[in-house]
Automatic annotation (TrEMBL):
GO terms for molecular function: oxidoreductase activity. This is 3-oxoacyl-ACP reductase. The lineage of its organism: Bacteria, Bacillati, Bacillota, Clostridia, Eubacteriales. It comes from the Bacteria. Keywords: Lipid metabolism, Oxidoreductase, Steroid metabolism. InterPro entries: NAD(P)-bd_dom_sf (IPR036291), Sc_DH/Rdtase_CS (IPR020904), SDR (IPR050259), SDR_fam (IPR002347).
Length: 246
């Protein structure tokens, strides 16, 4: 895909992987719509910084992507600006740590709606333009726990496992339209989500990772760009990006 004059939407772009991906794509020349739910002020400042630094259009869009109606409104806002999405990066996600028996149905629904239903919603509204153009890229940010499952993270693991199979199935559906759908199943990334570990826990976890460290968000962002610009025959893949952990 020719990156010039292409537009990308990144969900969860105010921090972590999404923020790093925004800089990576801005540097590569993509127009950007950057989504967040609550950090609107900081994301607006970041979008302005990217615009001034890389001379590309960066538009912040506030939306709770766990709410299908809000996603529909976000895509209408994009359409009203006379633009459409050529590259969709479904990055936004939340975790929940605890015993399943102690989890409420509201907590379960929040994880599933944020991590999995949001991917459905964003894809649903991005796909028509891609099909019309006979090209498009969808990158889903998943987790290694969606491959193997994690104790005390059942809802998170289930949501990411759903993302992985969603990716494989949708790739088959869209391949005839020259639209590629791939996922990155991340290992332990040095983001806000993993800031819950104290120094001892972090050191213990690093010792379990063959690479001996957490990955930086910028490394995932680099992988995202490589997938976007990969040959069109690469589709339906869930690439485990975990430093050899699994």
């Amino acid at each position: 895909m020719n990156k010039f004059m292409k537009t990308a939407l990144i969900t969860g772009a105010s921090h972590g992987i999404g923020k790093a991906a925004a800089r990576q794509l801005a540097q590569a020349g993509y127009r950007l719509f950057l989504n967040c739910r609550t950090s609107v002020e900081s994301l607006t400042a970041y979008a302005k910084e990217l615009t001034e630094t890389y001379h590309v259009e960066c538009t912040p869009v506030a939306c709770d992507i766990s709410d299908h109606a809000q996603v529909a409104a976000m895509f209408q806002q994009i359409e009203d600006s006379h633009d459409a999405i050529d590259v969709l990066i479904n990055n936004a996600g939340i975790s929940h740590i605890g015993l399943l028996q102690d989890m409420s149905i509201d907590e379960w629904n929040r994880v599933i709606n944020t991590n999995l239903t949001s991917v459905f919603s964003c894809c649903k509204y991005a796909i028509p333009h891609m099909v019309a153009q006979k090209q498009g890229k969808i990158i889903n940010i998943s987790s290694m726990w969606g491959v193997s499952g994690a104790s005390c993270e059942v809802a998170y693991s289930a949501s990411k496992g759903g993302v992985n199979l969603f990716t494989r199935a949708l790739a088959k559906e869209l391949a005839p339209s020259n639209i590629q759908v791939n996922a990155i199943a991340c290992g332990v990334i040095d983001t806000r989500m993993n800031a819950c570990f104290d120094d001892d826990e972090r050191a213990e976890l690093e010792n379990e990772i063959p690479a001996g460290r957490f990955a930086a968000p910028e490394e995932v962002a680099e992988m995202i760009l490589k997938l976007i610009e990969a040959p069109g025959y690469l589709t339906g893949q869930v690439i485990t990006f975990d430093g050899g952990y699994l």
